[in-house]
Amino acid sequence: MKTYRIAAIPADGIGPEVIAAGLQALEALARRDGGFTVDVTEFDWSSDRYKRTGALMPEDGLDQLKAFDAIFFGAVGAPDVPDHITLWGLRLPICQGFDQYANVRPTKIMPGISSPLSNVGPGDLDWVIVRENSEGEYSGHGGRAHKGMPEEVGTEVAIFTRVGVTRIMRYAFRLAQARPRKFLTVVTKSNAQRFGMVMWDEIAAEVSKEFPDVTWDKMLVDAMTVRMVKDPRSLDTIVATNLHADILSDLAGALAGSLGVAPTANIDPERRYPSMFEPIHGSAFDITGKGIANPVATFWTAAQMLEHLGETAAAARLMRAVEKVCADRVMTPDVGGDATTQQVTDAVCDAIRGENI
Ligand code: NAD
Ligand code: MN
């Protein structure tokens, strides 16, 4: 029997609530399938740790994580710590340190959950957004000259490399090729941004030649937001820069009903390091401790983790269980229900144990 070593980093806000839910579902799946077990180690790396010790994670944090098969991450961010400190202190060092360059964000409308778009239901919106996750606008380069002075200048430098763009483009074309519609939309802002973005367009055209069976088109990111709202059926697989895809995928989550149902996987496709799986949402201070955080995004990302580990049957079973529970309208208030996190979790675990799932 296979044992997967999972590093759980629940971190802040509702992170611990949704990670606890996700671990219960993983446990139920392991019991039901009998083919694998999960060996979970929890890390207390968080904003609380930062307030206690001055660092969100220890200096040798990446070394500690290296031995694991996957990382299961909650959310980071606290009301009394600046967001750039929490993001750069925990999540980005893991993504960038382990070169998890492909950030994969599937979106679809679950049965029982309604989209804010009228006349759009399950099946009408079925996208995967591929976000470049290692460079671009989040390269961390820039600075502030004459800080605090009237003549202050702040720069925020986006760095795009041929290697970085080519590998994410290949990943996206390959993913599009594996999906039934074999259709990719490449998003840039290459009218206003003349260098890195024009290079994206050129590299897309080059890489497309390796995938003659994939149809593709190009969009400017501003027009893309309109297309997502007005013509969601026209989209399938989407690739965009670190910043653009960050924004587009929050929109996608909202169009699918709630940020609470949107998952994300930070993948090292070459499997040199562990990949990291997390819900898209943040620590949601407004609902922390109320027991009503939607665990669906975390279940879905647990399914992405199982898929990545090669447990495809368990991944599919988990998704069927989640869809059944959504269709039964056992859901949290953010998607119009009145169930608690634990009630949704219990229903999903029951469904996993059920005969027909
Ligand atoms: P957020 O995602 O935490 O919350 C936005 C809104 O969505 C809130 O109203 C919240 O209640 C709701 N929401 C989010 N997840 C939900 C869930 N599972 N169930 C029900 N409702 C849910 O974003 P924010 O308010 O902009 O940020 C809060 C903190 O989280 C900030 O410190 C921010 O930096 C951080 N953040 C972290 C991550 C991450 O760890 N990956 C991502 C985004 C934001
Ligand atoms: Mn985001």
Automatic annotation (TrEMBL):
Pfam families per record: Iso_dh
EC annotation from Swiss-Prot or TrEMBL: 1.1.1.83, 1.1.1.93, 4.1.1.73
PROSITE patterns, sorted: IDH_IMDH
Pathway: Carbohydrate acid metabolism; tartrate degradation; 2-hydroxy-3-oxosuccinate from meso-tartrate: step 1/1; Carbohydrate acid metabolism; tartrate degradation; 2-hydroxy-3-oxosuccinate from L-tartrate: step 1/1; Carbohydrate acid metabolism; tartrate degradation; D-glycerate from L-tartrate: step 1/1
Keyword annotations of the record: Manganese, Metal-binding, NAD, Oxidoreductase
Catalytic activity: tartrate + NAD(+) = 2-hydroxy-3-oxosuccinate + NADH + H(+); (2R,3R)-tartrate + H(+) = (R)-glycerate + CO2; (2R,3R)-tartrate + NAD(+) = 2-hydroxy-3-oxosuccinate + NADH + H(+); (R)-malate + NAD(+) = pyruvate + CO2 + NADH
GO molecular function: D-malate dehydrogenase (decarboxylating) (NAD+) activity; magnesium ion binding; NAD binding; tartrate decarboxylase activity; tartrate dehydrogenase activity
InterPro entries: ICDH/IPMDH (IPR050501), IsoCit/isopropylmalate_DH_CS (IPR019818), IsoPropMal-DH-like_dom (IPR024084), TTC_DH (IPR011829)
Coiled coil regions, renumbered to chain: none
Cofactor(s) listed: Mg(2+); K(+); Mn(2+)
Superkingdom, natural source: Bacteria
Residue ranges occupied by any Isopropylmalate dehydrogenase-like domain in the UniProt entry: 5-348
Function: Has multiple catalytic activities. Apart from catalyzing the oxidation of (+)-tartrate to oxaloglycolate, also converts meso-tartrate to D-glycerate and catalyzes the oxidative decarboxylation of D-malate to pyruvate.
Family per similarity comment: Belongs to the isocitrate and isopropylmalate dehydrogenases family.
NCBIfam families: TTC
Name this protein carries in UniProt: D-malate dehydrogenase [decarboxylating]
Organism of derivation: Paracoccus gahaiensis
